[in-house]
Amino acid sequence: MGLSSFLLKWLAKKEYKKYSLNKQCAIKNQTDIFNKIMLRGRGSEFWKQKKIPNIKKYNQFQSLLPISDYESIRPFISQISNGEKNILTKGMPLYFAITSGTTSGTKYIPLTKEMLAFQTQAIKELLLLYSYQTNNYNISPNVGMMFVQGSPNLQYLNKVPFAKLSGITARHIPFFLKKNRYPSMKTNCIENWAEKIDAIVQETYNKDMQIIGGIPPWVMTYFEALLSFKNKKSLQEIFPNLMLYIHGGSGFGPYKKAFFNMCGTIDTLEVYPASEGFFAYQDDLNDPSMLLLTNHGVFYEFVELADFQAQKMNRIPLEDVQLNIDYVMIVSTIAGLWVYNTGDTIRFTSRSPYKILFSGRSAQYCSAFGEHVIEKEVQAALEGAIKKHGGIVSEFTVAPKIMTESHLSHHQWFIEFKCIPDDLSFFERTLNTIMEKQNLYYRDLVKSKVIVPLKLFVVKVGGFNAYMKSIGKFGGQNKCPHLSNETKIANFLLKNYVK
């Protein structure tokens, strides 16, 4: 065993011991983070304006601070952007991590030095735990790693630099991962997505790539470009040692078959990074659930999705959550977010340790008829139909269709296939059957003939990319919504891209 492998094995064992301890101390971790956040908030402009007294207990915090959204902190972000300190919390952020909002446009989320360290620490932990699980200690500076991500180019909101989170973290890669990490900074700075993919192909086609990360649709775009350039049918012919795919930001299930068709069966791990914090990662190759990170600068609260949709903001701390209930996740952070609605929904699969599955966005749902369909249900139906009838999916979305005669209303499913199932009518029926099994509201609406079963539309190749280009969000970490309660995407596809 070489020196680097010996060192990696030592680090992996050390990380595993720390991980084993931390996952059993989740509530203590949250108490410590809560106290730290409170201590840093005292004296801030936010506390002064809100007239918040010193908070020592959670019930005080819960009664004094309501759930916030970006609009409520926008004035404070403006102050920070002008170089003012101690605004949302003690000190000053290094960056703003930008993210898109459906109602607020671009959001500028404070990213402090310590919170940025937690982002990079989480990835380091993930890789070390993977080495420990697989007993593979060859993840060294000689192993090729590639992450399809946003541009690290910085712009400024007045005096504070900003970029997408993935672009910022690309600027802070640990030294021991920099040597063979791709794409290069020069290539990563290319703004045009098609040009960037071509440049990544040129940089990586002859490398020993073993770890790849990024959201599924864009990694698959890279794979397609690479296979075309090399005139190969399988990625195994190009990267024979590829062993791990790290994914997040979009459910992997519907893309799994297409992904493995390209690269063969390899290990996969899901991560849950966000501009607000690094929330969770998959700590076990044999369990798709993710470990909630309770000691990474985030204090969590949860509101049941059903309550949230009914405008009942009944917040609970981590120790009070129940299994298999969809919760909207609310966070307070050491970077200065206070009872902030992430817009994400999760469900717990375990309380010892606390493990979760991402189930969607609170703003991405379909309930035009009172059915309360969420993204997790849509993805499960699509996975089940693919498993039963075959087919390979590139991208998809679901929207309601409200007819003038109400009993003819339905859900429209738009799917872009790489390989179309043999019988689309059976595929469509299976989608509907699984949806009825998962969602009782949907089943009752269909059975009572308030709506008719869903209708499937096959989207021409490139249809979803065309939509993303039309709204200026093609490439990078941008994702097409898989579920909507309005018809903007559906109308675009129906006009030009439905067969």
What does this structure look like?
The protein has 499 residues and is α/β, with parallel strands linked by helices. It has two domains: 363 residues, Rossmann fold; 132 residues, GMP Synthetase, Chain A, domain 3 (2-Layer Sandwich), CATH 3.30.300. It contains 17 helices and 21 strands. It has a twelve-stranded mixed sheet. A hairpin with a 2-residue loop joins strand 9 and strand 10. The termini are far apart. The mean pLDDT is 89.
Brief account:
Helices cover 38% and strands 24% of the residues. With 499 residues, the chain is of the alpha/beta class. It has 2 domains: 1-363, ANL, N-terminal domain (Rossmann fold, 3-Layer(aba) Sandwich), CATH 3.40.50.12780; 365-496, GMP Synthetase, Chain A, domain 3 (2-Layer Sandwich), CATH 3.30.300.
Strand order of the largest sheet: 6-3-7-8-9-10-11-16-15-14-12-13
| Biggest sheet architecture | 12 strands, mixed
CATH topology call of the largest domain: Rossmann fold
Beta strands, count: 21
Proportion of helical residues: 25-40%
* Spatial gap, N to C terminus: 57 Å
Number of separate helices: 17
Low-confidence stretches: none
Radius of gyration: 23 Å
Please write the CATH class name of the largest domain: Alpha Beta
